[in-house]
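Hey L., structure's done. Input below.
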Amino acid sequence: MARSILLLHCHDLGRFLGAYGVTTVSTPHLDRLAAESTVFESAFATSPHCSPARASLFTGSYPQQHGVLGLTHEPFGWDLIDPTTHIAHRLSRLGYATELIGVHHESRTLPDDELASRLGFGLVRTGGDRDVVVERTTDALRRAASSDQPFYLQVGFHEPHRTPSRRDRDGIMGFLGDGFEADESRGVSVPAYLSDTAEAHEEMAELQGAVRHMDEGVGAILAELDQLGLAEDTLVVFTTDHGLALPRAKCTLYDAGVGVALFMRVPGAAAWHGRRIRSLVSHVDVVPTLLELAASADPAGAAGTSLVALVEHDAAPRAFTFGQLTYHTYFDPKRSVRSADAKLILNLSNAPRAMDPTQSWMHRSIPVDLTGPTIGTSPLMEFYDLGADPEELVNLIDEPARAPQIAELATALQEWMRETEDPLLSSPASPRHRLALTSLDRIARMHRAEPIDAPA
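Output:
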């Protein structure tokens, strides 16, 4: 019998949970779910911002392939090239009842009924704060309990996204909205890539309050799942789109921008219970995994690989994860490749070193590596030793001893860009863009022992 799927996701969380070692945030419900699940400790989004990352999560393909290279709401208007690749369409064809509640940001904004038809959902109810999402999800679960049809229920929380509030000071958009309070009952965690200041503590306390608020909503949904007797036949997934909405996190290809929480509770499967896996995992692997676990189905056309063999048979993990940024609020093309212990970032424009994700005129949290009077422009390439420098603060791109590692990553990055038919490979938009591609190609050719002046 096919398993039902409850996929819970939220905005802008990264790995800011107790289950990932953050001791000051109160997330008892998600921590309990993690303890019953397989927790992927090195899971990564394909992009450090909302729509491209979510489109990858729900299609199993990279932004260059699914077409969502920027935000889907107006005035940006990006959209999926082929909406039938969405997991809802795939599962509908397999006889699932499909429903979307809350956040939708993976395709162009449309009325709910049009969105349902386009993405393969039987019912769509977008929007709503935590309590509305919980109420609608409870209703959906009660309807599912009275049916023999397996279900795919996609539930998105807005929290802990930044939210306008009358409590915000001029020039600042915080995390509180109007429905909950900051939380420093266990202290406050300031990420190591930010300066530990009083204003950073204030901002992080707000974030902790928003995360706690979201966690309580997850707890209410999981309690209803249990009470209705659905838990023993329902695969539960929790993840987020990308990293925290803080400077040097969201909208960057550093781990703080693309690292995500990801855990899966698979009922009746001992290999998935109470596991923690360090191997690299990408969001593009989620759709193939769910199709195999829930319905023994083949994810035709997906770029990712099912994680079932990794978890159940200790299969070889992926060697690399890949990241990309093209558009958020402006054109800022970047590509990255990450191995287990190193990362290479290619910056194809002269944009600022890091795009601002705070939606604020004024900043409370400041990066620790901010020096000088201006933020400056991005270097052509960045290379980081993640074992020695997990916050990616020391760029070793010019270190001669690192040349073999850099060449290996450059080759992998170039091959991935070609495989995904990355539009940035053609028609360079600027001299910097052309220089970036030329430099990547030169390093990759040296790694393959090809003549430097051979045709590309």
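The chain has two domains: 4-313, 321-447. Residues 198-227 form the longest helix (30 residues).

-- N.
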